[in-house]
Amino acid sequence: MIIPDTFLSVHEETVLFLSSVLLGFGMELIFDIFRALRLVIPHKTAAVALEDILFLLIWAGSIAAFTAVLAKGDLRFFCIGGSIIGFIVCRLLIGNPVVKLISSILKIIMKVIAWCIKPFRNIIVSIYTKFRMKFVRNAKTHTKRKNISLAPLIAPFKMLYNIFKSKRKQGDNKSGSE
Length: 178
What we know:
4 helices
């Protein structure tokens, strides 16, 4: 029976812990990308929640891959603690300047994309305005036709024909009998 060697020496555990701290640094840089996206493109609460869930899934996947490759497949809690420590230290040391740098790069990229899309946007807007005017005119004439077709042919108070006839008959009968 062969027992896999899962024991680590103190040196290997120290290297593993420092590697997990570096993993935390990398996770903080990924989180900074999400923060910069939130600054450049305004998000609603649901989108922010989805981004946070996506980030946690990325972090969990990276921890799983980290433990599979470097920790011989064993999840060690000091690896998770080391990545959290690395995340916090990176956030405190370089978090805000990195977010400003990434957001300025993203703003430049957004301007370049907007400049590239501008001719197509102008074409689409011109087509939209032409069709909108046509459809607005059609909608107005359709509404007029609909209103005309719904108008009653006879006024509502004259809908009961026998009321007027019966009053005349009663009036004619009274005047004739007197």
